């Protein structure tokens, strides 16, 4: 992969050539020249077994897997929050042991995620994907060291309230190109999210 083109912090498009492709362990299949994240999504935790987790650990050790997740908490879907938290905590530990960033899914669980960031004493970068919250919530996450990734939909004006070095962009499930999304997130500096992603992943020395 040409890392100088890496600019999409989170995508589900298997055809992507410029993004971190998110996979769940049972569907994981790596193609040459692409990079991935692997994790158990909160919506899948109720059916996750210990063998699934062993598969996550094995897959995430692959050099093509450059981030852990997506994992996290979802108050509206995914079942028991305690079970979600147990699986999320495992992802936090795996992120720390492999020294790879953690990509987070969050639906109405900001307080819980902020608390886990503090109590886990995590040192690896966390990326909150698909951020649609307000400026106050954005500040709380950024103050805790969590980067924010903006997709096709977000609250107008919020990206402008975020420190420049904490902004990322993503396609997620969108059909829009990452360049168009990055332009809407940072109209005055559309290259910024991609540069931040490559800096975060220490790929700047390969450009």
Please tell me about this protein's structure.
It is a single chain. With 207 residues, the chain is of the alpha/beta class. The protein has seven helices and eight strands, in the order βββαβαβαβαβαβαα. An eight-stranded parallel sheet has the order 1-2-3-4-5-6-7-8. β4, α2 and β5 form a beta-alpha-beta unit. The longest helix has 18 residues. The chain is globular and about 45 Å long. The chain starts with 7 loop residues before the first strand and ends in a 7-residue tail after the last helix. The mean pLDDT is 95.
Distinctive features:
207 residues, alpha/beta, eight-stranded parallel sheet, 34% helix, 19% strand
In short:
The protein is 34% helix and 19% strand. It has helices spanning 50-60, 81-98, 110-120, 135-143, 158-161, 178-185, 192-200, and strands at residues 8-11, 19-23, 35-38, 65-74, 102-107, 126-128, 146-150, 167-169. Strand 6, helix 4 and strand 7 (146-150) form a beta-alpha-beta unit.
Tell how many strands the DSSP assignment holds.
8
Instruction: Estimate the strand proportion.
Output: 15-25%
Rg over C-alpha atoms, rounded to the nearest angstrom: 16 Å
Characterize the biggest β-sheet. Answer: 8 strands, parallel
């Amino acid at each position: 992969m040409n890392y100088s083109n890496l600019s999409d912090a989170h995508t589900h498009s298997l055809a992507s050539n410029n993004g971190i492709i998110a996979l769940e362990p049972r569907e994981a299949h790596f193609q040459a020249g692409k990079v991935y994240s692997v994790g158990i999504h909160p919506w899948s935790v109720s059916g996750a077994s210990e063998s699934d987790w062993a598969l996550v650990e094995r897959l995430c050790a692959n050099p093509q897997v450059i981030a852990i997740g997506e994992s996290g908490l979802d108050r509206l879907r995914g079942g028991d929050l305690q079970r979600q938290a147990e699986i999320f905590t495992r992802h936090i530990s795996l992120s720390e042991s492999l020294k790879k960033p953690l990509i987070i899914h969050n639906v109405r669980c900001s307080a819980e995620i902020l608390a886990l960031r503090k109590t886990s004493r995590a040192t690896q970068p966390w990326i909150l994907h698909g951020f649609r919250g307000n400026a106050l919530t954005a500040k709380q996450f950024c103050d805790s060291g969590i980067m924010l990734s903006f997709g096709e939909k977000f609250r107008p004006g919020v990206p402008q309230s975020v420190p420049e070095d904490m902004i990322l962009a993503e396609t997620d499930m969108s059909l829009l190109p990452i360049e168009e999304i990055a332009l809407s997130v940072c109209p005055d500096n559309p290259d910024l999210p991609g540069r931040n992603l490559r800096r975060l992943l220490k790929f700047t020395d390969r450009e």
